[in-house]
Every structure is written in structure tokens, then in C-alpha cells.
Amino acid sequence: MRISLVIYIFFSQLLFGSDQQKIDSLKMNTLEFDNESKFENYLTISELYRSINVDSTIKYGNLAIEQAQKNRNKEREAFAIRSLGVSYFYISDLDSAMFLFKESLNIYQLINHELGISNSLNGIGKVYEQKMDLDSAEHFLNKALNLRLKLLDSIQIASSYVNIGNLYYYREQLTIALEYYLKGLAITKKLNIYDDIGDAYINIGIVHTKMDNFDKALGYLNDAEFIFKNINNDRTLSTVLLNKANIYNYHLKDYNEAIKLYEASLEIKKRINERFGIALIQNNIGTVYGNMEDYESALIHLRKAKQMHTELDNQAGLIMVNHNLGNVFFEQGKYKKAISYFNLSLEAALETGFNDYVTSNYKALIQSYAALGDYKNFVKYYHLDNHITDSLLSNLNQAQLKEVETKILANELSKENDILKTQVLKLNHKSRTRVLIIYGLTSLFLLFIIIQFLYSLVKKKNNRNLVNKN
Fold first, then answer.
1. H runs (alpha helix) in 33-173
2. Where exactly does CATH 1.25.40.10 map onto the chain?
């Protein structure tokens, strides 16, 4: 069973560590402040509450907006609206977040505030990313980056690099994703911004996980865990624990360690009411039980996850959980039911461009139709799943990853990055050419024989598994 690893959302520098004493002090003093100070207090209280109480975050965010409107200060009104959008984003209310980011964008455009425009565009792009509308996300995130480059805002440029890197990760273009993550890391290390350094470690760790470099991945994630524990950032700490748990669950097969880490992450996410994170962990715990062959417990957790992702209208989550439900039914020998879930996952993955799950569902459908003896559909999905290309691209990505990481860390965003991009394009072109030559030399008769042989092997394997289970 499998799942895509969560990408930590490097959003903006508006989330502060929780400090109840500071909140209480600000509340007590608010009545004594003038109108400008009241605005600052309301905004600060709202942002501090993000890791403590969602209702209070929304309440004080709205008070900050109302105070800015009373003061007739358009810049502060836009800032408070965008801040409230960030709060809704963190609780996975994407429609409210989108509405507020667009509202703040309209105001910033009226007053020609370029930094505010870039931050609002970035927020809109992040919402599209969560909805897995990657083309729209790329459009808005690149607009934000271009403005930030114009303004020479190093902190926000680093944020944009990571956000764009996330898009390439989802598209399975890991080399380019890592390049953007390392660009962000190089900037934040120069500025000694520990939150952002930790964020970069998370994303780099995830890429190495994807490439099966588990020791290196855990090294980056352990460094991130150390940072976030020391700066008391529980929200991001929960993300670190989640990604470590995924490695122990899906790759190292240490299920006890995985459950311990999932539960630690889940406790934090429940406390801060991060519904997307709760749904994700429910899914992952379901896969632990699936790996342990406790299928009834697996279904309980996966169905909870599906219900939450449906309520959140989270397409990435639904793609993932439907695939995992299909896996459970396949392992139980309920192949027709498994196929229905694999098709649900595949349809959404194709629509959103989530290539990782396109490939996974093709492979799952090949096995399912072989188990049913459905030769026609077996051949159909065999043709769709290009094993030769997958193998070539996997080897190519490994070489590229090592080259990119070494060059960027050594030269810190020097002109060699442009040379590297040219080399990557050449390598990709050569790989595609080799694949086409291979196909051109393979006759239709040989392909038919290979397909029949593979079909026979898969069907026999599934029949043996069914006999063993019975």
C-alpha cells in the first residue's frame, strides 16, 4: 500500500509560535490603545491563535479588518484580509481562503501596493495547488515570483522558490523541484531564518524519500525536527513527524515506529484543528493496518479519511485515499470493487495531472484485470503503462538529482544553474530518443508474445495468492 508524501506548505511569514501569556497581555491592554495600536493588537492576537484556537483566530482577524476599515486605512485592511485568508488556508477552508486572497488582491491593486499584490497572488496560487489545479497555481505563483524579484525581497523570493518547487514535485519532475528547494535554502541560510531553513529541509527530505534515499531523507527530516522543536513551532513539527512516519511505514516497514510517529503528529493536528492534516494521517494509519493485513481496521480509517477529504473538497486527498481503498479490496480478493476505486483515483489523477497516481493506478488495474481473467482490459492498461520509459526516467532522475544538489549547494545560485538546465534538457532528449529507437525495433508479433507471457504470469501469481488466502 502507498501514499504520496505530504509537501509542507511554505506559505508566508505570518505564523508565529503560540504564546498564551502574550495573548492575555495584549487582550488586557487593547482597550487602552489608540486606533492604530488596536489594529496591530487584533492582528497579532489572531495570528498567535492559529496554533491554539481556530474560532479565536477568525474572531480577532475580523476585528482587525473592522478596525482598519474604521481607520480608513486601505493598506492595513488588505493586509488583515490576507492574514485572515492565511488562517482559513491553515484550517483547509480553501473557498474562504480564495475569496479573501482575491479581496486583498483587489485592494492592493487599487492602491498599487506591489508587495501586497505579490503576496495575494502567492496565496491564490497556493489554494490552486491544494485543489490540484497545477496550471492555475503555476500561473499565479510565477506572477508572484516575478514581482518579488523586481522588489528584491529575498525572504519572499525564497518562499516563491519553494512553492514553485512543490508544483514540480507533484508533476514528478523531481530534479527541477529539488533545484527550486535548494535555491530557497541557499537564501534562507544566508539570512539565518531558522523557520525557513527547516521548511527547506522538509521538502528536500521528501524528494530524497521519493528517490529511495531513505537515510539521507531521515537526515534532513531529523534536522528539521530539531529546529522546530527548539523554536516551538508545533504545526510544522507535526508535518516533520508525519513524513518520518511515512518512511517507516511505506519503506522501512517498521510499523510500530510508524504508528508512534503518526499518533504524535495526529495529537498536534487535532489540537490545532488542522482538518487536512487529520484526514491525511487517518489515511496513513489505514495503510499501516493494511500493511499489517488488518483490513477491517484499515477500511475504518480510510473511510474516515475519505469522508473528511470529501468535505474539504480536497482532490489530492481523494485521489490518494481511493487508491488505498482499492489496494485493501485487492488484497481481500475483491477485484471488481478494487477496480472501481482504482478507476475513481485514476480519473481524478488524469484530470489534475497527478502523474504519480496515474502510473500507480495503471499498474493496479493491470494486476486486477489479470486476476479476473479479463484479457482485453489487461492489454489496454499494459499499453498505457510504459515500463521502459519509467525505468529510463527513474535512472535519469537519480543522476540529475545528485548533479543539481552538488552544483547548487557549492555555487549558491551561480550561472552554472543555467548550464545545468541545458544539460538536463539534453539528457531528457537523448533518453526519449533511445526509447523511440527501442520501440521502433520491436515488432508487433514480439510485443504480442510478451504481453501474453506477462498476462499468464500475473494471473498465475494472483491465483496462487487467492489459494493461499482461502
1. 35-48, 54-70, 74-90, 94-110, 114-130, 134-151, 154-170
2. 1-151
Classify residue 112 by burial, with Cβ atoms within 10 Å: 0-12, 13-18, 19+.
exposed
Q: Please state which of the four CATH numbers 1.10.340.30, 3.40.50.20, 1.25.40.10, 3.40.710.10 is assigned to the domain occupying 1-151.
A: 1.25.40.10
Distance, CA of 449 to CA of 160 (rounded, Å): 50
pTM (global) more than 0.90? no
Q: How many angstroms separate the CA atoms of 347 and 358, rounded?
A: 8
Reading the chain (470 residues) residue by residue, the pLDDT tens digits are 433 333 333 333 333 333 555 666 666 565 556 667 888 888 988 888 886 777 888 999 999 999 999 999 999 999 999 999 999 998 778 999 999 999 999 999 999 999 999 999 999 999 999 888 999 999 999 999 999 999 999 999 999 999 999 999 989 899 999 999 999 999 999 999 998 899 999 999 999 999 999 999 999 999 999 999 999 999 899 999 999 999 999 899 999 999 999 999 999 998 888 888 899 999 999 999 999 999 999 999 999 999 999 998 888 899 999 999 999 999 999 999 999 999 999 999 888 777 778 889 999 999 999 899 988 888 888 888 765 345 434 544 554 555 545 444 545 444 444 544 454 445 445 444 444 444 444 444 445 545 555 555 555 555 444 333 33
The three three-digit cell numbers of residue 110, written as one number: 487599487
